[in-house]
């Protein structure tokens, strides 16, 4: 397939749901990225050494409570993900561990202020609408139930490069 694709087919981004060798190969072969292009993915994964029974329990519980597991049920750690990315023909530029304690506050530019005002409006609506209040409380209970799961997970930001 030619790498001169001028249209975008969102089907090729469906790999996010189950990122694996076959799907990354399809993404690479589809011509979505130009040669030398960068592929960036924010992926959660298992901490190295997480026992299979813990992986199974957390995945099963995530599916029961949210409809999907928190991360891939393959039990892959960062080393496994890098191996898959290499197998698909990409080179890994970085696989940084993300700091989940940062809030992403970017400053006080005009777009930031507008974004904060819109967010505030939706938060006010959420705090005044009974249905949304119930949904939020239910969701918060589920998150609390799964809080210990995150001791076994780590978020990474992968940057890979397609061969030139």
Word description of this protein:
The protein is α+β, with helices and mostly antiparallel strands. It has a domain at 10-105 and 149-161: Vaccinia Virus protein VP39 (Rossmann fold, 3-Layer(aba) Sandwich). The chain is 42% helix and 15% strand. It has helices spanning 21-29, 52-66, 78-87, 110-128, 130-145; strands at residues 38-46, 91-97, 153-161. It has a 3-stranded antiparallel β-sheet with strand order 1-3-2, covered by helices on one side. It is globular and about 50 Å long. The two termini are 15 Å apart.
Q: CATH homologous superfamily of the domain at 10-105 and 149-161? A: Vaccinia Virus protein VP39
- Write the element-wise H/E pattern from the N-terminal end onward: HEHHEHHE
**Shape by Cα distribution:** globular
Overall CATH architecture of the domain at 10-105 and 149-161: 3-Layer(aba) Sandwich
H/I helix tally: 5
Q: What is the mean pLDDT?
A: 82
Low-confidence stretches: 1-21
CATH class category label of the domain at 10-105 and 149-161: Alpha Beta
Range of helix content: 40-55%
* Computed structural class: alpha+beta
Radius of gyration: 19 Å
Largest sheet: 3 strands, antiparallel
CATH topology of the domain at 10-105 and 149-161: Rossmann fold
User: What spatial order of strands do you see in the largest sheet?
Assistant: 1-3-2
Report the end-to-end length measured between terminal Cα atoms: 15 Å
Strand content: 15-25%
Work out the oligomeric state of the chains in this entry. Answer: single chain
- Secondary structure tally: strands: 3
């Amino acid at each position: 397939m030619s790498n001169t694709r001028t249209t975008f087919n969102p089907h090729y981004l469906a790999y996010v749901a189950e990122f694996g060798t076959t799907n990354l190969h399809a993404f690479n072969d589809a011509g979505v990225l130009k040669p030398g292009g960068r592929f960036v993915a924010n992926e959660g994964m298992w901490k190295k050494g997480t026992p299979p029974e813990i992986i199974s329990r957390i995945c099963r519980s995530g599916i029961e409570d949210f409809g999907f597991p928190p991360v891939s049920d393959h039990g892959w750690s960062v080393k496994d993900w890098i191996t898959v990315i290499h197998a698909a023909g990409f080179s890994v530029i970085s696989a940084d561990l993300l700091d989940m304690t940062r809030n992403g506050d970017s400053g006080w530019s005009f777009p930031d202020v507008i974004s904060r005002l819109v967010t505030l409006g939706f938060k006010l609506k959420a705090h005044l609408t009974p249905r949304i209040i119930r949904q939020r409380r239910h969701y918060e209970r589920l998150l609390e139930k799964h809080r210990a799961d995150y001791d076994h997970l780590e978020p990474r930001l992968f940057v890979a490069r397609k061969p030139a």
